[in-house]
Specification:
Length: 369
């Protein structure tokens, strides 16, 4: 879910979570949950106070697709995260429940369990629970639009539903207090952690159960080569250099300026999309954003933080031309020679990262249909 950088106030955290831990310590343990992962994936870190369970995941799935979660009852999390688009929405930028456009392109929630930071440019949001505060209660932009006047109304919608009462009681215990914003958030975060994409043709190739075509194999070799240097940022199991699992001892959270803009000759990006500078206030952070995963990238157009590039071919053109000349651009964004065959091969490889199981599995689908 997209937003301008936001650091939740202590009052908001206290009002939502009460005595619960608000910035979770993600534990390097898989606990009792069984992650069905290939050998090249390790289990993600899980908050000690929000362990995985099937009942909680299924409750979170219902809440994720339920329009009653928004202040005016018109929009759900799923309104901006469609399963068939790898939980993106296909728009340049998304529209909130009040009709207000957000400033950023909707990122996929798939494999978010391995993301050490969330959203495009916010190093202060380190877990899915805290992240949920933004789309639910954020005011700039408004997404789900739960302002102070709507909080009780939203909770009463779920407290008045016998099915939800039973489901919350099963997960969090009996009583009206079981249906709280803290528990709603924990359930939705659990569902999002459970949305995994690990069964693409490339995963099958790594497991020895699929073969790449000649073009795909050339694209793979080029992707990981010093010539293209794609893997210098798009690395690891999720194809992002922001990644952490149970074996990670030092969590790194790099942000990069990829030379998309230079509107003043000094490297400036247009407001309100100026990267982590909007949090840090440091000029060197202008245009620095998190490296998005390339998994399912063939179905998640348009691209970049503001949805300003419409096709994968155009993305390759941007990087081949090393973006805009800028003193703030990451030095790895350098001019590379890609002929038409190279570009076709790279796209063929990127298309092997599409996970049809993610896009079609009933486990992640709308339970109300």
């Amino acid at each position: 879910m997209r937003h301008a950088p936001l650091v939740a106030s202590a009052a908001l955290l206290a009002s939502v979570f009460g005595g619960l831990v608000t910035q979770h310590q993600l534990q390097p343990t898989a606990a009792s949950w069984h992650w069905k992962l290939p050998a090249h994936f390790k289990a993600p870190r899980i908050p000690a106070d929000n362990p995985m369970s099937e009942a909680k995941l299924q409750l979170g799935r219902r809440l994720f697709y339920d329009n009653r979660l928004s202040g005016n009852g018109t929009q759900a999390c799923a309104s901006c995260h469609f399963q068939n688009l790898a939980f993106t929405d296909g728009k340049v930028v998304s529209t909130g429940s009040t009709g207000e456009e957000t400033a950023r392109n909707a990122p996929s929630i798939a494999n978010s369990a391995w993301n050490p930071t969330l959203t495009w440019a916010n190093y202060s949001i380190l877990d899915l629970e805290r992240h949920m505060l933004v789309p639910m209660f954020g005011e700039n932009p408004v997404e789900l639009g739960i302002d102070d006047s709507k909080r009780d109304l939203v909770l009463q919608r779920f407290r008045g539903d016998p099915d939800y009462r039973a489901r919350f009681a099963r997960v969090f215990g009996p009583g009206a207090e079981a249906i709280s914003f803290a528990h709603l958030i924990q359930a939705i975060a659990t569902f999002q952690r459970g949305v995994v994409s690990v069964n693409s043709r490339y995963d099958q190739y790594l497991a020895g159960t699929a073969v790449l075509t000649a073009s795909e194999a050339r694209g793979r070799a080029l992707f990981f080569s010093e010539q293209a240097q794609c893997a210098s940022c798009h690395s690891g199991p999720t194809f992002s250099d922001q990644y952490a699992d149970v074996t990670t001892s030092v969590v790194r959270t790099p942000f990069h300026n990829n030379g998309l803009y230079n509107i003043d000759g000094k490297g400036a990006y247009p407001e309100p999309n100026r990267g982590i500078l909007e949090l840090s206030g440091k000029a060197a952070d202008m245009g620095a954003f998190r490296t998005q995963s390339l998994r399912n990238v063939a179905v998640t157009a348009p691209y970049m933080h503001d949805g300003s590039i419409s096709t994968l071919a155009a993305v390759l053109d941007h990087y081949a031309a090393h973006g805009q000349r800028s003193p703030l651009k990451d030095p790895r964004i350098d001019r590379i020679h890609l002929d038409d065959q190279d570009k076709a091969d790279l796209i063929a490889f990127l298309e092997t990262l599409t996970d049809e199981e993610l896009l079609t599995s009933p486990r992640y689908a709308n339970p109300f249909k």
